[in-house]
TrEMBL record:
PANTHER family: BCDNA.GH03377. Residues 141-286 form the GFO/IDH/MocA-like oxidoreductase domain. Keywords: Oxidoreductase. It comes from the Bacteria. It holds the Pfam family GFO_IDH_MocA. Residues 6-132 form the Gfo/Idh/MocA-like oxidoreductase N-terminal domain. GO terms for molecular function: nucleotide binding; oxidoreductase activity. This is Gfo/Idh/MocA family oxidoreductase.
Length: 389
């Protein structure tokens, strides 16, 4: 039985706004949370758009000015689902207004902003979390348990890719996700950030990186109005693309493991190929979000002749989060990763702690992102330590 409530004010309402709203609606439906989320108010600049979104997604009220939202007395938590360049300003103001903060990834536009965001939540003693949702797939949580219990032994390798292809057409317009002033970087901050979170979650802390960022299409048609993922070119005018189309890097971890990472929007045929393979001294695991309930596992100790990858359907009651949903093999999907995360956030609020991934993780993630960017410019290895000084 839920007794306490947390009243949410969300800034932004497009793709991620929909995913977060859905998670708030379903969290206490599937889970016995101690705290119930109340969808108090949603905020967006376009009055008609935000009004319609509020009605459709079930928000009790709406605002058109985020400053008004964060100063409302009937809001406990600010959820930020706006483009990256606005995260810091909203999060810092929200923390100063005494609100807990839940923010979309990557935490900020750059490392300096993410450090200021962390300082603000610490100084104002508010709780914080960041949306790296893929770690909340039951199969990924199960992989974590296997690694922590030593079933793979010492970890040697992680090989992680995030492959998309939605901007391969050179006439695809210059939407905000392709403009540095709005998002900071391209596939790097959008996709490699997920890989970095996964690697930190499953393998450990990064020590040093060496990488390249590449922009294949240097100019694209300008758009007047766009969402992050689509838009129609409004004129024949072309604008410069100042973010990366692809990011590739190698890494050394503090525990001696090594990793290869590839994030691209130019991998034809791959719509959302978020995948990893981890190899340890006793076996391997591999996962692919497009088949997200499955975890492939190989144990070296299996008897000769029977060795090989087996596929576990992580939907049994024994698998993390799975018992809250359906009977075994009645699969769950992308949206459930957000619900699982929100449940952790609600439980964290109940206990007065900030569950991981929180702003500490956000800063470390951003340090790796920026180390790769620096390495791409200098053509040198860059340590994470030097980024965090
Ligand atoms: C677009 O590339 C995008 O929606 C990312 O922004 C998300 O973080 C990722 O989960 C799916 O792709």
């Amino acid at each position: 039985m839920t007794t306490k409530q947390v009243r949410i004010g969300m800034v932004g309402y497009k793709f991620m706004g929909k995913a977060h709203s859905h998670a708030y609606r379903d969290a206490s439906f599937f889970f016995d949370t101690e705290v119930e989320p109340v969808m108090q108010a949603i905020c967006g600049r376009n009055e008609e758009g935000v009004k319609q979104a509020a009605q459709k997604m079930g928000w009790l009220s709406f605002e058109t000015d985020w400053r008004k939202l964060i100063n409302r007395d009937d809001i406990d938590l600010i959820d930020i689902v706006t483009p990256n360049n606005s995260h810091a300003e909203i999060a810092i103001a929200a923390a100063e207004a005494g609100k807990h903060v839940y923010c979309e990834k990557p935490l900020a536009f750059n490392l300096e902003q993410s450090k200021r965001m962390l300082e603000a939540v610490q100084k104002n003693n508010v709780l914080h979390m960041i949306n790296y949702n893929y770690r909340f797939a039951p199969a990924v949580q199960f992989a974590k348990k296997l690694i922590e219990s030593g079933r793979l032994g010492k970890i040697y390798h992680i090989r992680a890719t995030y492959l998309q292809d939605w901007i391969m057409d050179p006439n695809f317009p210059l939407v905000w996700r392709l403009q540095k002033e709005t998002c900071g970087s391209g596939s790097h901050g959008d996709l490699a950030a997920h890989l970095i979170d996964m690697a930190r979650f499953l393998v450990g802390e990064f020590q040093e990186v060496n990488g390249i960022l590449e922009t294949f299409i240097k100019q694209r048609p300008i758009v007047e109005e766009s969402s992050g993922l689509s838009g129609t070119a409004s004129t024949e005018k072309m604008g410069d693309v100042d973010v990366d189309d692809a990011s590739v890097f190698i890494a050394r971890f503090e525990n001696g493991a090594i990793g290869t990472f590839e994030a691209t929007r130019f991998a034809a045929g791959n719509r959302n190929g978020n995948r990893f393979e981890i190899n340890g001294e006793k076996g391997s695991i591999r996962w692919d979000v497009e088949n997200m309930n499955h975890l492939d596992i190989y144990f070296h100790e299996d008897e000769p002749g029977l060795q090989g990858f087996r596929t576990i359907n992580c939907t049994e009651d024994i698998h993390p989060y799975a018992s809250a949903y359906w009977p075994a093999a009645h699969i769950i999907g992308y949206e459930h990763t957000f619900i699982n995360l929100i449940v952790e956030l609600l439980n964290g609020i109940n206990k007065g702690c900030s569950p991981s991934p929180n702003f500490f993780d956000g800063v470390k993630n951003q340090a790796v992102l920026e180390a790769v960017e620096r390495s791409s410019k200098t053509k040198q290895w860059v340590t994470i330590e030097e980024m965090l000084i």
